[in-house]
Design goal:
It is a single chain. By secondary structure, the protein is mostly helical. The protein has two domains: 5-101, DnaA protein, C-terminal DNA-binding domain (Chromosomal Replication Initiator Protein Dnaa, Chain: A), CATH 1.10.1750; 103-144. The protein contains eight helices and no strands. It has helices at residues 5-19, 23-28, 34-49, 55-62, 66-81, 87-101, 103-118, 125-138.
Length: 153
């Protein structure tokens, strides 16, 4: 399974919100500092488990050796399964996976963004992420509702 450019964009926004790094920053930054290293390993884990990508496939996509990917996935899997590991790290990964679990949310988000852009309403990256999060929490079905905006003057 491969990951589309729109899925990469959504994933990158989620990583910015949870870890403070985009996918590009994780790939280009070779630092071994704990924060960036763990974020990078979380990315490998998500690509492996959410998108069922092979280790060599992830390695090719991120310009890393497949054994590096295997090590990162194994470390993150250990953190996810061990009760005594970093709870905040696990919650960040769980939150990202939860956001990615609902494909309808992503479609709904794109419909809202298109609607808002067609009415010259600009969104920041943070607002797009907040909309996505909000939609996943309330499981809004746009086809059942008519969206109207009331502008305050």
């Amino acid at each position: 399974m491969t990951i589309t450019s729109s899925e990469k964009s959504v994933l990158s926004k989620l990583f910015i919100q949870m870890f403070g790094y985009s996918i590009l920053e994780l790939v280009e930054n070779t630092s071994r500092r704990r924060g960036i290293s763990r974020a990078r390993s979380a990315l490998y884990y998500i690509l492996r488990h959410k998108y069922n990508m092979s280790y060599p496939g992830i390695g090719n996509m991120l310009n890393k050796h497949h054994t590096t990917i295997m090590n990162g996935v194994d470390k993150t899997k250990y953190y996810m399964e061990n009760e005594n590991s970093d709870i905040i790290y696990k919650e960040k990964i769980d939150w990202i996976l939860k956001q990615l679990r609902n494909p309808a949310t992503d479609k709904q988000m794109h419909r809202i963004v298109r609607f808002m852009k067609s009415h010259s309403i600009a969104l920041t990256v943070e607002e797009e992420i907040e909309f996505s999060s909000m939609l996943s929490r309330i499981d809004l079905k746009l086809q059942d509702y008519e969206i109207t905006l009331k502008h305050k003057e």
